[in-house]
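If you are new to this repository, start here. Below is one unmodified record pulled from the training split, so you can see the exact layout before writing a loader.
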Amino acid sequence: MATRSTTGESTSSGTVARVALLLRVLAEAEGEASLGDIAQRMKLPASTTHRLLNLLQEQGFVERGQGSRTYRAGLEFLRVGGLVTSRAQLTDVARGFMQAVVDACDETCMLSVYLPRTHSAMIAKVIYGSHPLRYEATLYQPSSLVWGATGLGILAFLPQDVVEDIVAHEGPSPAGGKAVKPAQLRRELTAIRQQGYAHTRGQKIAGAVGISAPVFNGTGVVAALCITLPDSRFQGGMETRFARILRAQATRFSNALGWRGAAAAA
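And here is the target side for that same chain:
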């Protein structure tokens, strides 16, 4: 039976919260972490932190590091995390973040997934807002990375050699037959990387506006969260607000996939 502390919080629930925080600290640490560093991040006395570490070490979730009084994630922690990741579909993980985008802006949110083998993108999931005037997304159809926010939000964050290969083999725009201008596209990709999102008008579908933010896992960009809406509904100030919403949810999505890079910090 749980007992209560002088603050009213049950001892058992307090311990669970501390263990959960400790696991997060270990997961986010780059390699081994000292007892002092862990205690500081948890804002707990070293003695309390050491006791929690010992409890998790008994279960295989923590291992002693090579250095003196250092610790790292244990094999059991890695095994459990790997099972959860491998059995979760990207679209399942995306659902909550996409719904948060729709709740915030009431526009269509799409998950555009990178297909490395064909250097293309594919809409894998869509959640619509309440507006009857909208674009119906075609699922599971590969499309260009060069034209439209659904592709550019991914392309800008791929390795440079991959980008150059894609640009060299790209055809005309599907919305008007405009040819690729490599120098102009490179400038656009640089701007996307700097601001953290892509914004296009009518590149894939005439009259459509698209905004997207990249999604990363532990190895690099894997997808983009996108908002699309008719140009007639797009008003001043929407770009900044929608980009902020997308970037926030894309960062949380990336963190859930194991990304701890610069994009997550942004």
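Two things worth knowing about this chain: The longest strand covers residues 221-230. Residues 1-10 have pLDDT under 50 and may be disordered.
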